Amino acid sequence: MRRKRLMVVALAIAAAALTVAATASGGSGGSRTSGPSGVGSGGKMIGSGGGFGEIYKAPSSTLTHALFHANLLPANKTARNIALASFGRSTKNVNYALALSCWKNNGCSTGTHGKLTVAYVEGFGENTFRQMSKMEFILEALTYPQIGKIIYRSAHSDLNQAIADFKSVIAQHVSAIVTYPDFGDAMIPVFQEATKAGIPVSTYAWGYVTGPGKNYTTVIGEDTCKLGQAFANVMNTKVKSGSIAFLGGFPGNPLSAGWQTCEQKALNSNINVVANDPTNWDPSKVQGIVAGILAKTPNLAGLSYEDALFMSQGGYTAYKAANIPYQGVFTYRTDEAGMGCLADKLKDPKLQIYYFSAGNPQIRLALTADMMKLAGAKIPPTIVFPIQLQQQTKRDMCLKGYPGTASGTSLIPLSLLHQMYP
Amino acid sequence: MAAASSPPRRLRGSAGASGASLVATAAVAARFLPVWLATGALFVVASIVAPHSLGNTSWSFVLPDATVLAVAALGQMLVVMHAGIDLSTPGVVSFGGNLIAGVGAGSDHRLAPAIFACLGLGVAVGLVNGIFVGLLRLNPLIVTLAVGQIVLAWSSKYSRDHVTNQPLVPSGLSSWATGKPLGVSNVFWTGAALTIVVALVLRYTTGGRRFQAVGANPRAAWIAGLRVRTHVVLAYTAAGALYAGAAVLLAGVRQSIDPAFGSAYLLAPIAAVVIAGAALSGGLASSTSTWVAALALTFLTQMLVTMGLSAAMQYIVFGAAIVAGMVVSGDRAALLLGRWLRPVTPPPQAAA
């Protein structure tokens, strides 16, 4: 009898608590309208000409928003044209309600009855960066009336699932595939299978897999070696001498290896790299690793890492727990608003932050490159953006109205971003 | 009378008839002592190869993190005592943390309902697991994994809708977690108190002793009139509540919630419980030894980072340490000691 009563009490507690959760969390629907597929339509138009169904022109305000400066376009002429065509599509109007529904439901029919189906397939899609990239992909796809269907797949970090997803979209005879190759060269066989079937495959955010131009269409991103050299330049001029640390993503990933190797080589001899640890791009792991580094090197003078957001979460917490001031020279590849807002809050002149861009809009170029390839264009195997690091004190990462986890260089219109993350 | 006609029994390796209680004491000691000795040895090694890992900066991370793992492991321990296993831990911790941020909405005024929602979620998930395993007799490995996946998926959706825009936990919780009365984190004191409470309840209350009796021998407990199935349901429900408690503590330590929140708690709590001396086939377990095992695992990870080993070497050393922990685990030690000390029955005399 007493046991039964206990179970009833447990059930009642659980039900009451879930009711509290459901009611307390609330939620706002927000108004849903149509609007431009990207940010910025003002300023003069950059570029000229066109071809393969594209116009090679983009507003300077869009370029400035995504790249920091309108002239930071790829040097290669075709690559530059692809970038201009892609960014130029940000002025085209799309249906935000449809985009949101497509984003929430991981795919949709666009309603245009276009004959083409495009797919964004990735090994892991659960963080904000990937979710925002998914929305950028959808917004870009909605600017093409010939695209009738959008497919999205995430393998939740499971290689077998990633391969199965890729094979599945090939079997569905999609017209084009955009991907982030979380499992690197393990994806080569399915890339080759798609290429053999005449399906263009492009990667973004320097998701480099061996054989671009041969095994797949193209890879879009920045030159990671030059990124490392830019980081080293900051360390050489700001730290001058002392101990610094590197953090990376998953062990052996090409992005981290790319910049770390080149930064190490370009550092002056008075700077000592005391740690180089993989974080799996997991903020919880970042906290433990930074705590370990600080235990050994409490006077750490600088740190280089891809993810600014994680250093504003796990990294900052480690400094706080260790009672060590959050000071030093930090170089990041990404530009999430949360890091900037933390720096603004701390207002410490000894906290010096230099950053690049998370590069969400690069996925738009991947789709445009695929579409141009379908139209018969010859696509360069790499589309490389030049590097120009920004300084937090001169260009604040903390943008008004942006979620802390969002990159400020994203081209997702703010009103839509608010509907994604109410 | 069978007992009367039985041949005299003696203990192998024991000097006298009073050896029965000695066997029991030795077996219990052998079960739980190795983890304490191994942890002591780990600290000695650390003082030689990585002295920085024993400094204040390192402890400021290790103690709160070890405590969170220990609280989750306590929940797992209750389940393992009944020959079960619970793979829903990451789901509960993840969703629990998201509820702290989502319901809390960054406001201290909403912290209480947020904690209440988190604990309620843990109880609800545990109860569902308990009903499936205890009443419907489904395989715990499969059913808790399935329930955990559903909870994780729900957590992911909730996170997208309510947390991504505001991932910070209420400042009251994060300030409390960074507070250090007597120089040690509040999280540690809370976890230590919880561990002591669980230990005392299991050892000194009627309910606790019944709980242990059912775990040690369900058939005997059933014959004695105890409700075995109800105890299994209770074990999973209490475990769910402890996972949710771990989620509250972890949210305070991390201060913000991310998509990977709680993902580290799938196997680590099970490893801590087994290294502490519990048998996956059920039976006795020790709360304090589980806590020590959680501390050892967390400290080892931190020591390897402090040593500056490459990622590959860290994985190799950590994996080797887990294997070594299993080899010298209390469960195996108790088994070997039990075999050595078990009563030996002389062969029956041939009929005249």
What does this entry look like structurally?
- The complex is a heterodimer of chains A (422) and B (352).
- With 422 residues, chain A is an alpha/beta fold.
- Chain A folds into two domains: 252 residues, Rossmann fold, CATH 3.40.50.2300; 132 residues, Rossmann fold.
- In chain A, 42% of the residues lie in helices and 19% in strands.
- Chain A contains 14 helices and 19 strands.
- In chain A, the strands form five sheets. Chain A has a seven-stranded mixed sheet with strand order 7-9-8-10-11-12-18, sandwiched between helices. Chain A has a six-stranded mixed sheet with strand order 14-13-15-16-17-19, with helices on both faces. Chain A has a two-stranded antiparallel ribbon with strand order 1-6.
- In chain A, β13, α9 and β14 form a beta-alpha-beta unit.
- In chain A, α10 crosses α11.
- Chain A is globular and about 60 Å long.
- About 3% of the residues of chain A have low confidence.
- With 352 residues, chain B is mostly helical.
- Chain B has one domain: ABC transporter involved in vitamin B12 uptake, BtuC, CATH 1.10.3470.
- Chain B has 15 helices and two strands.
- Chain B has a two-stranded antiparallel ribbon with strand order 1-2.
- In chain B, α2 packs parallel to α13 and α3 crosses α13.
- At the A-B interface, α1, β14, α10 and α11 of A face α3, α4, α5, α6 and α11 of B.
The N- to C-terminal Cα distance of chain A equals 46 Å
- The level 1 CATH classification of the largest domain in chain A is Alpha Beta
Strand content of chain B: under 5%
What characteristic shape of chain B results from the CA principal axes?
A: globular
* Uncertain residue segments of chain B: 1-11
Strand tally of chain A = 19
How does the major sheet of chain A shape up?
7 strands, mixed
The fourth-level CATH homologous superfamily of the largest domain in chain A is Response regulator
CA radius of gyration of chain B is 22 Å
Residues in β-strands, percent of chain A:
15-25%
